[in-house]
Every structure is written in C-alpha cells, then in structure tokens.
C-alpha cells in the first residue's frame, strides 16, 4: 500500500486505544478534566458498568461556546502552549487527547456554561466523521460530559469489555483513587440510578481522617501511622498501615506524585525496602502517600495514561522516600516497645 495520511477520525480511534482502555479510563480522564477546571463538586452517574452510559457533571470553570467544538479535536488543550510549559505543569491533563479519543469511540455530548456566559451550549459528536453539532441547552454553571454506547463503532474493542459488575468495580476504584487525591472536592458515584458512594468535601485539615475512613475503612484509618517529612524541596505526607496490620497484595497501595496517582518501580522499591524485615514475605505494606516536589523535578510526559513518571533526581527521590518511611516506622516500633506490658 502507498503511504497515506490517515483520516483524522481513524487516527483518533487508533489513539483512543492508548487512553480509553475501558469505562474506568473514560471516567478517569473526564474527572481529571473536571478537577483541572477547578470544580469543587463532581457527580458521576454510571449505567450498566459504563457500557451504556457515563455521565459526569462538574461545577468548574466551564468551556466557552466558541471553544466547545475545539475541545473535541485532537491536540486541542488549554493547559499548555509550548514544550517548556511541561516543566511547570500543575494540571492533570495536557495532551489534548482524551475528549477526541472518547468521542471517536462513543456518542459524546459535552454541555457547558462558564459563569459569565448567559446561555449554555452543547456539542455533540458521534460516528466516523468529525462533524460536531453545537446547540443551545439548559445547564447550570459548569460542565457535563455524557458518554453513551462506548465502543459502539469498534466491535473488536467492545468485545473485550468485561461484565457490568467488573467494569463498575474498576470505576469504583478509579473514583476512590481520585477522591483520595483531592480531599477538598466532593464526589458522588451512582450506578444504575442508585447512589453508592458519597465523599463530601473535607473542610478542615483535621477531618481528613474522615474521608480516609470512608475510603480505606476504620481499621486502616484508626491504626495507621501518620507521616510528614521534608527534605530540600521534597515533601512526603500521608499514612502507613502498621506493619502487623498490612494487607493482601495491592490493597491500599496509593502513592501520589504532585496529586497524580502513580504505579512506579522506583517508588515501589523504596517502600518495600523500608518495610523489609518488619513483615513477612507474603505481607504487603498498605499506604496512602503524597509526594510533592517542584514540577520541574519530574517528567510526567512518559506514559499516555500518565501512570509513570520520570524523576530527574531519581536516586535522591528514592532515598528520601526510603528514609522518611524508615524513620516513621522506627519511631513507631520504638514507641511500641516503650509501652508497658498489660
Ligand atoms: P487535556 O485535558 O489534555 O487538555 P482533553 O481532551 O481532556 O485534553 O480536554 C480538552 C480541553 O477541553 C481541555 O484542555 C479543557 O480546556 C477543556 N475541558 C475538558 N473538560 C472540561 C471541563 N470539565 N471543564 C472545563 N474545561 C474542560
Ligand atoms: Mg484531559
């Protein structure tokens, strides 16, 4: 075959494979957009595990009428303008791919109203062509994204969807992770019309434990070791399960880098090393940890779904995490020993 440039729609569908793996990845991308828009309240409404419908509403900044159709095009973003911006990036998104990808494999409606715009508008797009229709709609300040019939036009991908129940379990987990990253935002999650999760916004810092309790359970939140450590411009905060109380593989292993949940080899290694010797080989440490460092210390542009990062001072970050955890664990173990026997 001769070389040809792919039609935009087809290019989007291929790119969608990287960002939109299943309903939970759609939820992740849309909720991250809501957070980037400054929303303080995000409502997530799922039908049939997301196979049928994913509807997400926020009260964020909204999208102006003349940018609505653009928001659905590939590489359209309001978050960066030049490569250097990546060094100072604080938003969760920056690739301008999510809405284009999702709309190429579903029927998508994007409704929005910025505060200073009198009328709300809705952009709708589906199928193979790039035709976006924009019509007036009734909508409060903020944005709604309505994703219907995911993968309706890519049967091969639709076949890979698991049962409603399994897909919803993944969505539930994504929402849990995001809710742990932003205590100041309220989230609700409905499935088939039933309100299943409610994470109200945490106003005061000392009530953070409330959300931790709701999400990770009483046992974890009441018995965990609180951690708060600084080194140069690095900061590590959060909670560790007491070594004896740890979980089966993977449960409650939440690590955030500048507000983004990560699964990273270097981080895993540092955490495991700190726990080594304190627990048996078949136990896994449980933790909810937040690492903050200057945006220019980390490269988030490594993985399309942004699960991985690259630290510019990898060794230093590794040792900082290891040291912070070891210090807290040692302190906890010493305190435990000082307590008189009953
Ligand atoms: P990215 O998040 O990487 O910029 P997306 O495709 O996810 O790319 O979104 C494209 C653009 O649409 C965003 O840059 C933003 O300007 C706008 N947008 C999307 N969702 C929202 C939302 N909920 N509120 C406000 N603006 C939004
Ligand atoms: Mg985005």
UniProtKB/TrEMBL annotation:
Q: From which residue to which does any coiled coil extend?
A: none
DNA mismatch repair protein S5 domain residues are: 212-330
Gene Ontology CC: mismatch repair complex
GO term, biological process aspect, one: mismatch repair
Q: Recite the UniProt keywords alphabetically.
A: DNA damage, DNA repair
Could you give a GO molecular-function term held by this entry?
Answer: ATP hydrolysis activity
What is the protein's known function? This protein is involved in the repair of mismatches in DNA. It is required for dam-dependent methyl-directed DNA mismatch repair. May act as a 'molecular matchmaker', a protein that promotes the formation of a stable complex between two or more DNA-binding proteins in an ATP-dependent manner without itself being part of a final effector complex.
Family of this protein: Belongs to the DNA mismatch repair MutL/HexB family.
Q: Please give the name of this protein.
A: DNA mismatch repair protein MutL
According to its UniProt entry, this protein's organism is Paraglaciecola psychrophila 170
In the record, what lineage is assigned to the organism producing the protein? Bacteria, Pseudomonadati, Pseudomonadota, Gammaproteobacteria, Alteromonadales
Q: Which residues of the full protein are shown?
A: 1 to 342 of 606
């Amino acid at each position: 075959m001769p070389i040809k440039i792919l039609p935009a729609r087809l290019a989007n569908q291929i790119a969608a494979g990287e960002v939109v793996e299943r309903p939970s990845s759609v939820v992740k991308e849309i909720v991250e957009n809501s957070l980037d828009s400054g929303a303080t309240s995000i409502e997530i409404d799922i039908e049939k595990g997301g196979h049928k419908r994913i509807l997400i509403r926020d009260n964020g900044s909204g999208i102006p009428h003349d940018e609505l159709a653009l928001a659905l095009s590939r590489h359209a973003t309001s978050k960066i303008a030049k490569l250097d911006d990546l060094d100072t990036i604080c938003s969760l998104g920056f690739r301008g791919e999510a809405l284009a990808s999702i709309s190429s494999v579903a029927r998508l409606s994007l409704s929005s109203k910025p505060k200073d715009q009198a009328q709300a508008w809705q952009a709708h797009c589906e199928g193979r062509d790039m035709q976006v229709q924009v019509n007036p709609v009734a909508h409060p300040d903020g944005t709604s994204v309505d994703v219907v019939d995911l993968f309706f036009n890519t049967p091969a991908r639709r076949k890979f969807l698991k049962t409603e129940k399994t897909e919803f379990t993944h969505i539930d987990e994504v929402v849990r992770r995001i809710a742990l990253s932003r205590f100041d935002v309220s989230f609700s999650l409905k499935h088939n019309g039933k309100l299943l999760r409610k994470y109200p916004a945490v106003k005061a810092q000392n009530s953070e434990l409330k959300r931790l309790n709701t999400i990770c359970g009483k046992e974890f939140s009441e018995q965990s070791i609180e951690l708060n450590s600084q080194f140069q411009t690095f900061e590590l905060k959060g909670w560790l399960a007491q070594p004896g109380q740890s979980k089966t593989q993977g449960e409650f292993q939440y690590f955030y880098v500048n507000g983004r949940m990560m699964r990273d080899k270097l981080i895993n290694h540092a955490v495991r090393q700190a726990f080594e010797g304190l627990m048996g080989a078949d136990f896994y440490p449980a933790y909810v940890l937040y690492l903050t460092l200057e945006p220019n210390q980390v490269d988030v542009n490594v993985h399309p779904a942004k699960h991985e990062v690259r630290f510019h001072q990898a060794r230093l970050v590794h040792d900082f995490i290891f040291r912070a955890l070891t210090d807290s664990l040692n302190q906890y173990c010493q305190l435990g020993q000082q307590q008189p026997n009953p």
